[in-house]
Amino acid sequence: MPRKAKRVSADEDAAIPTKKQPPSSDVPLDFSTPQCLFESFIAPVTRDEFFSTYWEKKPLLIQHRDPKVQSFYRSLFPMQDLKLASGQGIYYSRDVNLCKCKDGKKVLLPRRGKANYTEIMKDFRNAKATIQFHQPQRYNDKLWQIMEKLECFFGTLVGSNVYITPSGSQGLPAHHDDVEVFILQVEGEKHWRLYEPIVPLAREYDVAPVDKVKTPTHDFILKEGDMLYFPRGVVHEADTPAGSSHSTHVTISTYQNISWADYLQDLMPALLHDGAKENVDLRRGIPRQQLLCLGPTSAGSTLAGLLKDLANRIEGGCQLRSCEMLRDFMGSRLPPYVKDGSPNKEKGSTKKSVHPPNLNSTIRLQYQDYAAITVDHVPKMLDPTDELMIYVFHAINNNRESHMVSDSEESPPVSGLRFPLSHMNALKEIWKSKLLRVNELPLEDDHDKVNLAISLWTEGLIENVHTES
Question: What is the pLDDT of residues 259-275, one digit of tens each?
Fold first, then answer.
């Protein structure tokens, strides 16, 4: 059974920093840019204060007592959205789970196949089970709009879950996550208890041992419109107080597998590949039977020296080529939000100007926040010379419906284009210029200028603003 809520206001709990949001507009979030969205998302805390004081360090509670803000939060996947989603065909495990906390352990109700709303609600009422709905941004446009902007801001995937917990019930035991967490209280109240991390900035989800979570560092009630942030590794548990009909909250999470360790694993193959071309020591053979050695050997000093050489290359400004992480992000992320009624609502809008650009056209980049330029080798199956090429990856045609719920462990295919290295300055010019004439692109051949513009236009990355006759 959940522990009885200690009904104190967060203001009385000096251990958790609390901010109260001032009155706002009908839509309390500024969607004009990713930066503006995040700043309004955490207001009244400033962006600098958040990252210097709270991010990866300690929890933060933001209380919204403005009815307009509370009303906006209630639109982020309320109970009726579950009914709408179930009408479109959802399945247990992939889309929804039913769980409860019993004797400090998570108990998952054994449900399989297609999920029916009536059956879900029966388990919710009779079994006192928590409804865990995965990736609700696939069905709620406001969450889609928030999360695709957050993905632009953070430069990594952002996922979410909805937890609907009946009165006097707890869905999950005390545990820590491997993600940075933002909790948005949509309906009702939730009693939260936070504990000191067992593993600071944990890289894996884990249920906390009972003997490690005796005394909470924070104990408070989250009310409609409130937002709670805490870093990965913070042990937490929550239950719906007996006095509430039910609680609905949205967990928005990010920074999973995006640590320096993960980044180094992604960078090292390219660093070693490029370094071995210039440093003969990296091309020398390892000592005989080195693979059979266990523990320290004389090879340790050699390895240390080679790693120092790679470090010097990085400090010297060598190209850092993120390969798999960037491909996975661009292929998996949400497409740009498009308002209701647009023809390409589910996959973003890639509507192009009617006429392709020519040498006399003035062009403008679209969807800059949803595209990335990188350099990588052409796969050997396509080019045995192992040539370096420019890749332009983008997310404007990604599928919102499959965001973060792929049945395959493989990264989804990423949309993009490939250009020779000679096109780098021209691409950089397009990326930094508000308006640019095709004939001004820094390429020697006019044919290359037009082909580059048409290629980007065909993908929907640029628009032809004006063409002189």
Answer: 999 999 999 998 998 89
302 token code pair: 């050699």
pLDDT band at 244 (very low <50, low <70, confident <90, very high): confident
Q: Which residues pair with 462 in a beta bridge?
A: 365
How many angstroms separate the CA atoms of 268 and 264, rounded? 6
The Cα 26–Cα 75 span in angstroms is: 12
pLDDT for the residue numbered 4: 35
CA nearest neighbour of 326 among 427, 418, 411: 411
Q: Is 192 exposed, middle or buried (0-12, 13-18, 19+ CB in 10 A)?
A: buried
Q: Phi-psi region for residue 409, left (φ > 0), alpha (ψ -120 to 50) or beta?
A: alpha
449 touches 423 (CB < 8 A):
no
- Grade residue 26 by pLDDT with cuts at 50, 70 and 90: low
Instruction: Please give the Cα distance from 114 to 91 (Å, whole number).
Output: 4
Q: Are 136 and 82 in contact (CB under 8 A)?
A: no
Give dist(CA 392, CA 201) in Å, integer. 32
What share of the chain in percent tops pLDDT 70?
A: 90
Structural domains present in the chain: 10-254 (2.60.120.650), 260-288+297-315 (no CATH), 324-467 (3.90.930.40)
Question: In the structure, what pLDDT confidence band is assigned to residue 408 with cuts at 50, 70 and 90?
Answer: low
> Mind listing the pLDDT tens digit for each residue in 75-95?
999 988 999 999 899 999 999
Are 36 and 149 in contact by the 8 Å Cβ rule? The answer is no
Kindly write down the DSSP assignment for every residue of 325-358, as one continuous string: HHHHHHHHSPPPP--TT-TTGGG---PPPSS---
Lookup: tokens for 275? 């370094």
Q: Using N-to-C axis directions, what is the helix angle for 260-278 and 324-332, rounded to 10°?
A: 130
